[in-house]
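Reading a protein record of the kind used here takes only a little practice. An example makes this concrete, so a full record is given next.
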Amino acid sequence: MRGLGPAHRHHHHLLTRLSAAKGGFAVTELVETAEERQTEPLRVLLVDDHDLFRTGLRNLLEEQELEIVGEAATGAEAVAHVSELAPDVVVMDLNMPSMGGVEATRHIAEVAPLTRVVMLTISDEDSDVTDAILAGACGYLLKDASIQELVSGIRAAARGEALISPHIAAKVLQRIRATSAQPEIEEMIRAELSEREIEVLKLIANGKDNAVIAAELHISPKTVKNHISNILMKLQIDNRIQAAVYAVRSGIV
């Protein structure tokens, strides 16, 4: 493959590792039952400015029975394709010419709020991660992820859940904690949420998954999911990662 020189080393790394699962990747809410899987293949748009990488990724995802409805090389193309094709999930690169992945994600959240975005990038810089999550991305994965991790991320995003590695989640929340608390957010949280929902929100912000939250509060996992749905609806946010950021910004954790 002569096109894979040093400038493409990160992309080559993913393509060679996507086919081999890594153990021990701890993420929130990735247990998937057969009942939760959609009967129709998920419709996915791939966005990356490297043609060779997109082609390899398309082949790998199609082997996992995902439907690739289109490809884009820039953020602007991605926004246009989303409006036209209405994919379930967009797999988005971060750094691209002209409009980058964060700006494209913001536009997609405005024009197609039901389409979910998963960032797939080489960068784990604090600012990049935080900007992407706050722009509305439902997941943030690095390009050395396995194909199983990426497929889990796509399926989680399609269900409205958020996938982010604990390492990256910790970096996001650490950066938010470094900024001053915003008491007006705390006032809104306390006005909108019940005491139990605030307890759940605090545990989410501390990185607990649903099973741990259920055990700590002595309630069922299904009740936890209901509480989380209510929290997202009342605070008008998209996913639990944004909920965690919201809680940390408010100063309640």
In short: Residues 1-37 have pLDDT under 50 and may be disordered. The longest strand covers residues 67-72. The beta strands are 43-47, 67-72, 89-92, 116-121, 139-142, 163-164. DSSP finds twelve helices and six strands in the chain.
